[in-house]
Every structure is written in C-alpha cells, then in structure tokens.
C-alpha cells in the first residue's frame, strides 16, 4: 500500500443482505483510505444517528483497508428509501448509495462504476485541458459535468464526448482557452436506471501565474505542475458519490 496519504476509494461496492428472515438488513462495503476516514450514513439525504435499531461499524482489516457496515434491525416499510454512505478524510471524500425498495422488481444490469478516476491532461501548450474518466454501466448512463457546483453546458469552450466499448464508457470534457476562472472543483456524474456515480477532481493554478483581475480572461500556459489532482468522489447507489444506485428487492 502507498506510504502517502490519499482520499477514500471504494474497493467493493455497497451490498445489501438480510438476516433474521428479513427483520435485519445489513449494508456493507469496503474501501481504502489514508488517513482513516470518518463515515456518515444518510437515508433520503437525512443524516442517520445510531440508536437501538441503527448501528454503524468500521473495521480495519489490513493496511489502510476498511470494512464499513450499517445494520438496521426490526425493519419496517418506512425504512425504504435511498441510503448513502460517505467516507471523508483530509485528502477527499467518496460516497455511495443504495436504493432500498420493498416492492419494485430489481432491474438487471450494472449501476455506473468508475473504472478509471478523473484525470487531467493538456494540449495546445496548456491552452486546452481535457478531463477524462472511464465508467462501467449497463444500461448506458447519462453523463453530466459541473464546475464549482454549476452544471456545464456544451459551448464553444466546453465540449463533451462519450465513447463506449460494450458496457465500458470513456467520458471526456474539453476546456479550450483556459483562464484562471477555470480553476476549482470539477464533478462528473454518471446515472442510469440502476444508480448514480459521481467523482470530483480539483484544478488549481500556482500563485506565480496570478495576474491582475482585468487580465484573467487571457489564455494562460498551464504546466503539468500547475494542477493538483484530488481523489474522485464516488457516489455509489446499491454508489460506486461510487454514487451507484441499485434497487434491492426484499
């Protein structure tokens, strides 16, 4: 395992199993992280707290490896909904979701999962940046990119591409005529009928390239050392925020 710190990343998608004739549900997944991440569980965006029916566990089973569990006892109909687990440390965060539904039939296929985390490369002497990642999904996912929480539209400066080989999809975002205003957090989200998965990466410029405000819209040379890659945030929905959503039938 690498000796440097790194953001959490799922090594096993969240899974759902039942015990005690369905009266107890267990949500479980595995991840790697350094340092040890903090874990939060949500149901329908509401932060869950431990109580007599709800129990959380995080167990280390190797160097920087963790087994994460949510146990839900005395299951009732109102427990249905979208469950999300979020793991976070100072290097980044990853989240995963699973949709618990007591009546809908489970759909065959694969919820979106990031096979290759987002990365950045440059072209045209740094005037063009290309964000790219690889996703496994079936059926075909919808891809959405955002910058600092604002959805990116297809424009002359921003171009989207999605290429596939079977259930493997390569998604890219091209940004032309790069400026300082293009720095910040980029998020890519893949969604299909079975779930949703999201990953983030941050683009930062060295201070030595700072320019007066009135010059910010000029094209800038972006050297390789000028951007810092952050670990992808995986939304899994049972997410791989990893936000992979899978419907489970009980």
UniProtKB/TrEMBL annotation:
<dbReference type="InterPro" id="IPR013783">
    <property type="entry name" value="Ig-like_fold"/>
</dbReference>
<dbReference type="InterPro" id="IPR003599">
    <property type="entry name" value="Ig_sub"/>
</dbReference>
<dbReference type="InterPro" id="IPR003598">
    <property type="entry name" value="Ig_sub2"/>
</dbReference>
<feature type="domain" description="Ig-like">
    <location>
        <begin position="8"/>
        <end position="101"/>
    </location>
</feature>
<dbReference type="InterPro" id="IPR007110">
    <property type="entry name" value="Ig-like_dom"/>
</dbReference>
<feature type="domain" description="Ig-like">
    <location>
        <begin position="112"/>
        <end position="202"/>
    </location>
</feature>
<dbReference type="InterPro" id="IPR036179">
    <property type="entry name" value="Ig-like_dom_sf"/>
</dbReference>
<dbReference type="Pfam" id="PF07679">
    <property type="entry name" value="I-set"/>
</dbReference>
<protein>
    <recommendedName>
        <fullName>Ig-like domain-containing protein</fullName>
    </recommendedName>
</protein>
<dbReference type="InterPro" id="IPR013098">
    <property type="entry name" value="Ig_I-set"/>
</dbReference>
């Amino acid at each position: 395992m690498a000796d440097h710190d790194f953001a959490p990343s799922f090594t096993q998608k969240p899974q759902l199993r039942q015990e005690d004739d369905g009266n107890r549900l267990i949500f479980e997944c595995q991840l790697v992280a350094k340092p040890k991440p903090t874990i939060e569980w949500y149901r329908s965006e509401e932060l869950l707290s431990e109580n007599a029916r709800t129990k959380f566990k995080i167990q280390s089973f190797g160097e920087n490896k963790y087994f994460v569990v949510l146990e839900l006892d005395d299951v009732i109909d109102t427990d249905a909904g979208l469950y999300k687990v979020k793991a976070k440390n100072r290097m980044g965060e990853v989240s995963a979701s699973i949709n618990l539904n007591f009546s809908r039939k489970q759909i065959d296929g694969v919820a979106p999962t990031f096979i290759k985390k987002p990365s950045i490369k440059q072209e045209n002497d740094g005037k063009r940046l290309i964000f790219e990642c690889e996703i496994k999904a079936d059926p075909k996912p919808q891809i959405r990119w955002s910058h600092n929480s604002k959805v990116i539209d297809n424009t002359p400066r921003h171009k989207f591409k999605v290429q596939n080989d079977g259930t493997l999809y390569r998604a890219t975002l091209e940004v032309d005529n790069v400026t300082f205003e293009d720095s910040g957090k980029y998020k890519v989200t893949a969604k299909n009928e079975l779930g949703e998965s999201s990953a983030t990466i941050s683009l930062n410029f060295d201070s030595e390239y700072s320019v007066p405000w009135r010059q910010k819209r000029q094209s800038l040379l972006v050297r390789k050392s000028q951007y810092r890659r952050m670990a992808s945030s995986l939304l899994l929905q049972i997410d791989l925020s990893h936000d992979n959503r899978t419907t489970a039938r009980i």
